[in-house]
């Protein structure tokens, strides 16, 4: 990559060619449980937030900052996440898109069980419509692919909802290139939401496939960096050069990694929320991008 300045794209991308969203969204998964509950990959996401007022405030602040893609799922707090989004934001401002996911059972706080039976997916979508207080879901994603059910049957259920006008666009989560190709034979797939960040890079082929095919790649846990976030690490060094934080540098790397990447960092802190959104204003040189890329890869 050349040394020329590469500006993070401040413009919207068009999901499905007709749904404009800014390139940093907001993921609601962390708006659950209490302050002493596990975080990160060990988070339970089992109960509505202990501080409901604070959760509502951070959702509203996200929209005030111009964030217009709000990501949730029916499995977050057994539907409580969707109810929280509706309580905070309904009636939704023009241009605000809500994405949700179906296809995972929560029989206990520690279990996330894929279930792709078509009747179950349709039922959960109906419940999501009620909890979100909408007549049509902007983006409905298959939360996990159930290997015990043909993918065609799972995608077919989502297509039926789309044909009925209950869903605008369809996406997948934790999907491979092959699965995206298979699903696209049935209905247009506008997004894929996989775990991806500077350190977790096994979905690089999916990022590239999404960019080539105009599919939004929505990374969750986008700023997980581990040891790379140390004060002496390369991420911190680039951040200091930018006058930014390591988290902002990591988000800037994602924004430069592909023109269809839309990170959805989640936080319960208004200050961190503002920090995340401000990453849109960062400019990396080619050399800075390469250093970050090599640090993670």
Automatic annotation (TrEMBL):
Give a yes or no for keyword Coiled coil in this entry: no
One example GO MF annotation = oxidoreductase activity
Q: Which CDD domains match?
A: AKR_AKR13B1 (cd19088)
Q: Which residues form the NADP-dependent oxidoreductase domain?
A: 23-295
The source's domain of life comes to: Bacteria
**Pfam families attached to this UniProt entry:** Aldo_ket_red
The answer to whether UniProt assigns keyword Oxidoreductase to this entry is yes
Keywords of the record: Oxidoreductase
Protein name, please? Aryl-alcohol dehydrogenase-like predicted oxidoreductase
Q: Which organism is it from?
A: Nonomuraea polychroma
